[in-house]
Amino acid sequence: MEKKSFYITTPIYYVNDIPHIGHAYTTIACDVMSRYMRMKGCDVRFLTGTDEHGQKVQAAAEAKGMTPQELVDKIHVNFRELWKVLNISNDDFIRTTEDRHIRAVQAMFKKLMDQGDIYKGNYEGWYCVPCETYVPESGMGSNRTCPDCGRPLITMKEESYFFRASKYVPQLIAHYEKNLQGVMPRIRYNEIMSFLRGEVRDQSVSRTTLKWGIPIPGDEKHVVYVWFDALINYATAVGYLDSPEMFQKYWPAVRHMVGKDIIRFHCVIWPLMLLALGVNVPVSVIAHGWWTVDGEKMSKSKGNVVDPFKMAELYGADAFRYFLLREVPFGNDGDFSETALAGRINSDLANDLGNLLNRTLQMIVNYSDGVVPDGNIGGASGDPLDLELRASGESAVALVDQAMTTFSYDEALKQIWGFIARGNKYIDETMPWKLNKEGQTERLRSVLHTLYEVLRLSALLVAPYIPESAEKIWRQLGCAGTPLSERLDDFRWGGGAGTRVDKAEVLFPRIDLEQWKKDRAPQAKEEQQVVEHEAEIDIGGFRAVEMRVAQVVRVEEIPRSKKLYKLEVDLGYERRTICSGIKNFFKPEELEGRRIVMVTNLKPTKLCGVESNGMILAASAGEGESERVALIVPDAEIPLGSRVH
Ligand code: MSP
C-alpha cells in the first residue's frame, strides 16, 4: 500500500539572527511531529532552511567588507549546526540564495505577471534612508522614527510591481469556511477570518531600493520583495519547478508551522498567491505562541536571549526538547526559566521515567537472571491489575494520537507521563520484592513481564520527543533496531519474553539543586524555586486521599528521633497517634490545642518504634538550614472530623 504523504515546514529563519529559543521551538515541534508521523507509517518530508536576502544582510556584509553571498555562506551554518545538536531530522535544508529557489521564484513571478495578476504601480510608504528600508506603521518608533536606528522616517514613493491579492480573497474565505483546520488554533483562525473580511489590499512585491534580492526577469532594476521570495521556498523544495512528480506527492499534504507573528503572511498572502497559481492552499498553518524569559521579553539589549546551544550543552538536547513542548500548551505564550527546566528534569525525566526504567531492569536482573519472563499478562485469565495497566497503555496510545492530530504536544506528553506514573504505581502495588521473598513465582513472572511491556511501549511513545534517550531505553531493554524505525500501530502487548535485558544505566542524572544554584545563580533568578511536579492525577486519585480536620491533644518527644514528635490527635469520632517530622520547627506548646488537617487513610507504619496512624499537612520552603514549615489549618470554626475536599 502506498504510504500517506505528510509534508511539514518550519519558517525559514533570517540568516543574520543568532539562533535562539524561538527558532529552536518551532523546529523541535516540527521534528517531533515528523518523527511521530514516520512512526505512524507516513511518507514524511520535513523542511527547514534560511531566509538570506534583504537589506539587513546587504548592510551587514558591507560593514564586514564581504559580499552578501560570502556572508550568508558563512553564517547560515549556525542554523545547520544547531539542528545537528538538537537532533533535528529534517529531510532538506533550503537556502533562498540557491539556484533552484531563484528559478522557482522567477517562474512564479512570470506566470503571475503573464496572467495579469502582477501589475506595475507605485509603492508609497515610510522609509528610513540610512537603513534603506520601509517601516510599516505598526513597527514605527514614537514620532515616526525607525525602530532600528531611531532616526526620523520620510515618505517615499517608488515604482513597484503589485500582486492582485484582493481578487482571490472571496475564494480564500470560502475555502477557510469549509476547512476549519486551515488555520490552527481556533483563536488564530478567527483572527485571520476577520482580517480577510476587512480590506485586503494588493501587495507590493518588488523593490528598486534594494539590491540583495532576486532580480525580476526582464526588469532587472527591480528585485523581488523578501516575503514574496521567502514564502515560495516551501514550494521550491518539493519540486514546484523541477519535479512535478515530487510536488504532486507532497504538496497536497503540506502543513506550515509558524510563530503567531507571521500568520498573515502564511494564512493570507501565501494562500492567495497559491490560489492565483492554481495550486492547493496548505492543509494547515499551525501558529504557536511566543516565549518570554523569566517573565520578560527576550532581547539582545537585555542580554536575556536563551541560547539553545548552551541549553543543550548544560542539560542535554532531549531534556530541552521535552521541556519546551511539555511546559506550555502549544499555541499559548510561555515563559522560559532554567529553574523550571531543572525542576522538570528532576521530576519528570529522572524520577518518573528514569526510575521506572531502573527499578524494572534491576528487578528483571535480580529475580529473573536478566531475562524477561513469559508471564500471563494479556489473556482473559490475567490479573485485573495487569489488565488495567494494559488498558491504560492502549488508551494512552489512542489519546496521544488524538492530541497529535491537533498539535497538542503538551497533552500528548501528559498522557504518556500518566501511563509512566501508572507503571510506577504498579510496582508499589505489586511489590515484586515481596512476591520474590514469598516464592510467588507465577505472579512475579507476570508482574515483571507487564513492567517490561510498559517500558517497551513508553520507549515508543517518547521516541519522537526524546529520541536519544528512547534509543538508550530500547537498547537497555535488549530490543533490536531503534524505536524510531518501529511502527506504532504494530505494537502488540505481551511481546518481549525471553529477551535478555542490558544493565541499567542512568538516563537522566538528577540535578543536585544546591550545586546547580551555585553554578547557575547569575542566570537563574535567586528567588525562583525549583518546582518538581508530580504526574497528573484525575479527580478519583485526589478523592482517594481522605483528609480531615483534627486537633492536636498532646505532643511527646520520641527519644530515638531527632526530627519526630509523637502526637495524639482528636478527630472528634476517635483519637489517634501520629508521628510527625516537625520537631525542628515547633515547640510542643505551639502545637498542643491547634486544629490541623491530616490524612486519615494512610496505611499505618512504624517509625522509631511508634506506630503512626496518619499524617498532618504542612507546607515547606527552602532547604537545609533555611527550611521553613507552615501548618495547614482551617481558617474558621468547623467541627473536628470534617472532611477536606
Ligand atoms: N524569515 C521570516 C520567516 C519567513 S517564512 C517564509 C522570519 N524569520 S525569523 O527568524 O525572524 O523568525 C522565525 C520564527 O521564529 C517565527 O516563526 C517566529 O515566530 C519565531 N520566533 C522568534 N522569536 C520567538 C520567540 N521569542 N518565541 C517563539 N518563537 C519566536 O520571520
Structure in words:
- Helix content is 41%, strand content 18%.
- The radius of gyration is 30 Å and the shape is elongated.
- The strands form seven sheets. Strands 1, 2, 3, 4, 8, 12 and 13 form a seven-stranded parallel beta sheet that branches. Strands 16, 17, 18, 19, 22 and 25 form a six-stranded antiparallel beta sheet that branches.
- Helix 12 (308-315) crosses helix 13 (317-327) and helix 14 runs parallel beside helix 16.
- The chain is built from 22 helices and 25 strands.
- It has three domains: 5-288, Rossmann fold (3-Layer(aba) Sandwich), CATH 3.40.50.620; 338-490, Isoleucyl-tRNA Synthetase, Domain 1; 539-644, Beta Barrel (OB fold (Dihydrolipoamide Acetyltransferase, E2P)), CATH 2.40.50.
- The model has no long low-confidence stretch (mean pLDDT 93).
- By secondary structure, it is α/β, with parallel strands linked by helices.
- It binds 5'-O-[(L-methionyl)-sulphamoyl]adenosine.
How much is the radius of gyration in Å?
30 Å
Major sheet summary line: 7 strands, parallel
Q: What would CATH call the architecture of the largest domain?
A: 3-Layer(aba) Sandwich
SS content category: alpha/beta
CATH topology-level name of the largest domain? Rossmann fold
Oligomer: single chain
Q: Overall 3D geometry?
A: elongated
Percent helix, as a range, is 40-55%
Q: Which molecules other than protein and nucleic acid are bound?
A: 5'-O-[(L-methionyl)-sulphamoyl]adenosine
Instruction: Kindly provide the name of the CATH class of the largest domain.
Output: Alpha Beta
Strand content: 15-25%
Total strand count, please? 25
Q: How confident overall, as mean pLDDT?
A: 93
Poorly predicted segments: none
The CATH fourth-level homologous superfamily of the largest domain: HUPs
Number of helices: 22
Termini separation comes to 54 Å
Number of domains: 3
